[in-house]
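Researcher: Re-running this chain for the archive, since the previous output was lost when a drive failed. Same request as before.
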Amino acid sequence: MALITCKECKGSMSSMAGRCPHCGAIPLLKNKNVLYVLFVIALGIYVWIDTHPVKTYPSLGNYSNKSETDAVSNLPAYVEPSPPPNQPINISAINLYRAYQSNEVKADIDYKGQRLAVNGMIGKIEKDIFDYPLVMLNIDGFNYVRAKFPKSQMAEIANLKQFENVTLTCTGDGVVLGSPKLDCTK
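Model: Regenerated structure tokens:
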């Protein structure tokens, strides 16, 4: 147990005391602990909200719990894929995203492992934790279709620009945390 100086009245007090015996002020160390706990709780809530996206359901008619400007909720339902043999399935990034949001099991049957020609606007260009380049096709500013490329195409990916419209021919790779994935390494 050490003596510390009160920040309010400058009097001496025990480091174990909950309040200053002279003025009643709470030591700064105690305030920091409360702030730390609140920060951890807020971070936990943010992570939970980020991993549980809001879904809209067609049976609710015109009701939507998202804003009216939300491009995803205003789109018509996606069309069943029916490409000619050996041809990739042509689909927009928004329709691929919407297919996975409405029924992940059906979307996996329709698109996972299939060659897809996905068109959309580039929202982000990043690298994953293993340094593979990623091209993120924008859905609504918060959600993306993630396309992973081989490291050998790093120079080509470096020439792409955000907001550029592209068509990526890749293999459907399911969904992670609500974002459809494309494997362009094959």
